[in-house]
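A common beginner's mistake is to predict each chain separately and then try to dock the pieces by hand. The better habit, illustrated here, is to supply every component at once so that their relative placement is modeled jointly.
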Amino acid sequence: MEYKNVLTTCIYCGCGCGLYLEVLDGEIVGVIPAKEHPVNQGRLCIKGWNAADFVYHPDRLKTPLIRKDGELVEATWDEALSLVAERLGAIKAESGPNSLAFLSSAKCTNEENYLMQKFARAVIGTNNVDHCARL
Amino acid sequence: MIEEIRAHVAEKLQELDGVVGLRQTAEGTAPYLFRQGDDLSQLVLHPRYPLSPIVSLLQKRYPEARFGIVARGCDARALVEMAKREQVDPDRLYLLGVACTAEEAEECHCADPAPDPAPWPQAEVIGAPAEGASPNPIVAEYEGMSLEERRAFWRQQFLKCIKCYGCRNICPECFCESCALEDEVWVERGLLAPPFPMFHLIRAMHMSGRCVACRQCELTCPAHIPLTVLYDLIRRDVGNLLGYVPGADIEAAPPLSLTLDEAPLLVETIPH
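With all components supplied together, the output reads:
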């Protein structure tokens, strides 16, 4: 028997509102806005209030999928990352680095977004970097 | 006072399955179920979060268990209304009431800042009850307005609404499985601000006989709509017209669950 609240940051936009995930016996059962958080001060928008809904959603992807013969097939992370690296390398070699673009996400941390643009600019060699908040 | 509360909780944890209160850690302060062996120096009283829904959640998950709650006046009143609607079982609840200070009462414009132990089989209250504070000054201002001015006041306030549903989500008395505010019959989808004045008046009507003036809706409103003004006025009308004070008497039946001749209202007969 355990009920606790775990502080986290809303994943839906760049504001970074603080929210608690209510956890009952290891399962998320609700969201509570963090009153002491400097950004949102106990308030949330509709996305924040529903920020945990995807966690147990049946449509949530839990493994990478690779399209093989027109069908999406479950794959391991090693397999998926190797394929992506191989294809990015091949496209860059054939068509140049500016044939590629990198779309980052407000759902990631600052550090992850930094890594994404660093990868685009320093490894691939393109300034084609954008993010989901402009979609 | 906090030391006295911690000592009471420590003692009660020897017989209860847990006590719901606020826990302060390096992360911040949030509701928590204290269990035997937990560090009670982490038990605090600020900032206020609604705690009664957590008691309800735990009692439903553990139908045999007995829980305590460190409750302010508003938590205790919320529990009374929840008990009437079978969301809380008073026999499996220990209420450790905490009287708010005069400053806290003032901050909330709270008329009733101390928990009443009377409705509960097991309860005690720590701290001297402070005087009730005067109502939100906006209520008096509002009462000086003409009907047109009142309409303009609410139109301006509700135009700010971003339809986050936070007022409903945080409310200890909002526990319906299906909500009229999510029903397209009543609330057209995709409109911002939501239809005036229906969206807020549906909720206001549903809160009549329920709102215990905990002020959580107003505190969580990102648009700073003075919701407690609306609910204060509704509480006053329900009190004057129907003689009902939400959260006061655990035996009194809520007026909206009765027919006009005060017979119980059959839920099946209510059009959704």
